[in-house]
Write a structure and sequence with these properties.
Blueprint (H helix, E strand, L loop, with lengths): L12 H42 L3 H4 L13 H33 L3 H15 L2 H16 L4 H25 L3 H9 L4 H28 L4 H4 L19 H9 L4 H32 L1
Length: about 290
Amino acid sequence: MNPQTGPISESNPIYIARRRRNAILMAISLSMLVYGIVWLVWILLTLLWEGAAALRPSILFEMTPPPGAEGGGLANAIVGSLMMVGFGTLIGTPIGVLAGTYLAEYGRSSWLARSTRFLNDMLLSAPSIIIGLFIYTIYVAHMKHFSGWAGSFALSLIVIPVVVRTTDDMLKLVPNSLREAAFALGCPMWKMVTMVCYRAARAGILTGVLLAVARISGETAPLLFTALNNQFWSTNMNAPMANLPVVIFQFAMSPFEDWQRLAWGGAALITGAVLILNIIARIILSKKH
């Protein structure tokens, strides 16, 4: 219905052309959607088919086997990954939350805040191998050895921009009326942020942290340059440490069938962990709304 010319006739050439273009674009969009879903389903089915055969209790409790040996598991790699991901999260989360708080509450539209957001977006999209090379240059090369700490530092640099962006966005969603009410009661700035804004945005901030953990769980490139790998059981963070992504990479490229089978099992474990973290994040965010 056109308010100036009255009802639009279906025989109008302009109307017909618009309908035709709409149908063409809709068909292209749906075909691209189907194309992407087909590949995603194919990848997941292949992973489940190959990985399910390797998933057995021993994979969680036995060490990575030597070349050509039968059996074995990924216990040392799982523990190493958990330690590095845990320490990387503990290092990166406070920095990300505090930086995001400055951007949303203190800096707002200042030139420093705008510059920080721009640089944070660049770091957010930077290839992880660059972060690995950076940590290798400033830490590993000076310490003269690979270590779990170097891997944690590299992973923390991936956590920081994710948490900064999420914290900034979530705090911006907090209504200004809450801030004004706190100020009207004589509440200082720091207390308003911690007692009002953080409480209102805690679900979104926690979701960002979980998404950051899900992202770093499968990172391989940074760990190749920092933590390297270890075929033995080790919880020493100041020495090379086994981790699932690098073990999967090395085992998948090997000619040994047992190693390839363990690589599929490790890939299935990481995929399952990332899936669980994403589900938890969505549940937390949905409860907030």
